[in-house]
Design goal:
Number of helices: 16
Bound molecules: nicotinamide-adenine-dinucleotide, zinc ion
CATH architecture of the largest domain: 3-Layer(aba) Sandwich
Number of strands: 10
Largest sheet: 6 strands, parallel
CATH class of the largest domain: Alpha Beta
Strand content: 15-25%
CATH topology of the largest domain: Rossmann fold
Helix content: 40-55%
Radius of gyration: 21 Å
Length: 385
């Protein structure tokens, strides 16, 4: 037998920026970020739902690009976003057709402005058109600015499974423009904060303490506090991806997926009625209480986490947790098997051993978990009463 192994190393630069009014004429952040070669083009995709909130956005983009030497605005395409855009490949195909129509090449840019779902679809088109063109993301929701938009995953749903088709690709840049944050529906604005709580719990106790101390201002969506939470969370997520040793998730350990095994299943069980943020909020509550019940995390710390979630007016429990299969087992537990399949190895669920530190667990005691679900149910119902 003959042959040889080659190590191929490719390095990526992950550019994360924060600004306000990226397309204002006097804001040179974006123009300073782009490399232009005299014939570079930009094709901008905007989520249709933003039109009513930002009626002048397209005009501002046209004016902004008319002033960048060496770069031409090829077009602005408005397409539908939100979870429906990921349910099949129609939006993806429209984006691909636009990339082809405008002759976007590997020295040009696809730019995308929208919520996490829209970023996922257009990101997938950018990652696959010409086998990958440069992508600049402008996330417009709390969740996409503080988590998904600074990530390296793109995709759409298929076969009833979330993000079944997709590609890992490092975007050319991510521009978090705080101006977008303040028009979101109130619940969307708040729910995305759970990803900041999540990353604080697995990475940074001081950040958790800060979130806890500012929880009322956060619930009231006070702009400077919301923006600081978003920025700190985004940097934590990006740092983990860049320096955590597994950017394309080949291993089974996924600290950024804390609380997510139940969350993904709950989204599916509710046919996506429950948003990602709300589902993660339930998942984080469950896994935190679980860690305390199995003796990993002090109960007082679990209580602090539950209080923060409650104070943000986010759910600790959802009725879909009650759904059971023919054998009486909670259907959410199938999420564990699906999580294992998704990881492609042994089951690995991150649990907390202290605020700011996680530990990988390889099994879940369903009986203890049952108790947690029951306890959170009574707590949620008594709060609602
Ligand atoms: N790629 C990843 O790593 C990753 C990680 C986590 C979540 N996600 C995905 O992100 C999606 C959820 O993203 P999301 O929470 O941003 O929700 P979303 O994209 O579904 O947007 C929520 C709603 O807000 C509207 N909207 C968006 N920005 C707005 C603004 N500035 N003003 C007014 N309305 C606005 C949208 O039209 C939509 O109706 C899910 O599909 C989830 O799977 C992806
Ligand atoms: Zn998430």
């Amino acid at each position: 037998m003959t042959g040889e192994d080659f190590d191929i190393q490719v390095s990526f630069r992950h550019r994360i920026r924060f600004t306000r009014g990226a397309f204002s004429p006097d804001n040179d952040l974006l123009s300073g970020l782009l490399e232009t070669r005299g014939h570079s083009k930009a094709l901008v995709f905007i989520e249709e739902g933003l039109r009513e909130f930002f009626p002048n956005l397209e005009g501002s983009i046209q004016d902004y690009f008319s002033d960048i030497p060496g770069l031409r605005l090829a077009g602005v395409e408005w397409l539908p976003g939100a979870e429906a855009a990921k349910k099949d490949d129609r939006v993806y195909q429209s984006a691909m057709a636009a990339i082809e129509h405008h002759h976007i090449d590997r020295h040009s840019y696809v730019m995308v402005i929208g919520g996490g779902a829209f970023l996922d679809v257009i990101g997938y088109a950018a990652a696959t058109g010409h086998r990958g063109v440069r992508l600049v993301r402008f996330p417009t929701t709390t969740l996409s600015q503080d988590d998904s938009g600074v990530g390296v995953k793109n995709g759409i749903n298929a076969f009833g499974k979330k993000n079944f088709i997709g590609a890992f690709a490092v975007p050319y840049a991510v521009v978090n423009d705080f101006l977008f944050l303040h028009t979101q529906p109130e619940l969307t604005r708040r729910a995305g904060l759970i990803e900041a709580v999540k990353v604080a719990l697995v990475k940074d106790e001081a950040f958790f303490n800060w979130l806890e101390a500012n929880v009322i201002a956060l619930r009231n969506l006070e702009e400077p506090v919301l923006e600081e939470a978003v920025q700190r969370s985004a940097i934590h997520h990006a740092r983990h991806i860049a320096l955590g040793g597994d950017p394309f998730e080949l291993g089974s350990s996924r600290p950024l997926d804390y609380g997510h095994w139940a969350a993904h299943k709950l989204e599916q069980l509710t046919d996506f009625e429950l948003s990602h943020g709300e589902a993660v909020s339930v998942g984080v509550a469950l896994d935190s209480l679980y860690a305390a019940k199995v003796g990993l995390l002090p109960m007082a710390d679990a209580e602090r986490i539950l209080k923060v979630i409650e104070s943000l007016d986010l759910p600790l429990w959802h009725e879909a947790l009650e759904l059971r299969d023919g054998s009486g087992r909670r259907r959410v537990f199938n999420g564990l098997e699906e999580f294992r399949e998704h990881l492609g190895g042994e089951l690995t669920v991150l649990l907390l051993k202290s605020l700011g530190t996680g530990i990988d667990a390889h099994e879940i005691d369903e009986a203890v978990w049952e108790q947690c679900a029951e306890e959170l149910k009574s707590r949620a119902l008594s709060l609602a009463a």
